[in-house]
Amino acid sequence: MIIQPPRLAASAALLLLLLLVFLRCSDEAVSATNGVPAIFVFGDSLVDVGNNNFLRSVARANYYPYGIDFLSGPTGRFSNGRTVIDMFVDMFGIPNAPEFANPNTTGVGILHGVNYASAAAGILDETGRHYGERYSLSQQVVNFESTLNELRRSMGSWNLSRYLSKSLAFLVFGSNDYINNYLLPELYTSRFRYTPNQFANLLLNRYSRQLLALQSVGLRKIVVAGVGPLGCIPNQRASGAATPGRCVDNVNKMLGAFNEGLRSLVTQLNSQHPESTFVYVNVYAIFGDILNNPDTYGFRVVDTACCGVGLNRGQITCLPLQFPCLYRNEYVFWDAFHPTEAASAILAGRAFRGPPSDSYPINVRQLALI
Question: Which fold has domain 35-369?
Answer without folding.
Answer: Rossmann fold (3.40.50)
